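$ ./design --mode recover --in tokens.txt
reading tokens...
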């Protein structure tokens, strides 16, 4: 387990009781370096949507917990946020909740798909479709060219809910 994974796991475990107590869902925790600064972020949600006051409540309580058991030696910024409209699907619970929803899939490398004129294959780095199913290794989408298109999760860089305006 990397240091990043260890910090994220410890933070998740620390936040679990607070989430249960307030009826919140811990969507994700990330420990990332951006522009030379480390960030420990928690993305939280609840039925009907998380509010700024909810984020502030979690941030204050979490900050107090981290003051008592600060397991991170380097300087970092603690943040609590909503996962946002175009949230990334990472965990099984995210995929389960999103069955039947339209998602945008980004690939690590271009893939040849029959999406061109007259079914001609075209290389794409992104694909949009309706999430039908998932396993530990695959996701299945309904697309404009296939009623059930299966993709290996190891080939996917990200899956996000589609934002339609």
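writing sequence...
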């Amino acid at each position: 387990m990397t240091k990043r994974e260890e910090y994220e796991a410890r933070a998740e475990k620390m936040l679990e009781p607070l989430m249960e107590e307030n009826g919140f869902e811990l969507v994700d925790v990330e420990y990332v370096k951006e522009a030379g600064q480390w960030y420990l972020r928690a993305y939280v949600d609840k039925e009907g949507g998380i509010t700024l006051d909810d984020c502030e409540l979690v941030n204050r309580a979490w900050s107090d917990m981290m003051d008592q058991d600060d397991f991170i030696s380097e300087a970092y910024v603690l943040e609590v946020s909503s996962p946002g409209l175009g949230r990334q699907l990472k965990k099984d619970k995210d995929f389960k909740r999103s069955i039947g929803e339209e998602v945008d899939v980004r690939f690590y490398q271009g893939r040849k798909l029959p999406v061109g004129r007259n079914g001609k294959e075209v290389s794409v780095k992104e694909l949009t479709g309706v999430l039908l199913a998932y396993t530990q290794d695959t996701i299945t989408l309904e697309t404009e060219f296939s009623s059930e298109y299966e993709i290996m999760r190891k080939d996917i860089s990200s899956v996000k809910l589609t934002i339609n305006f």
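exit 0
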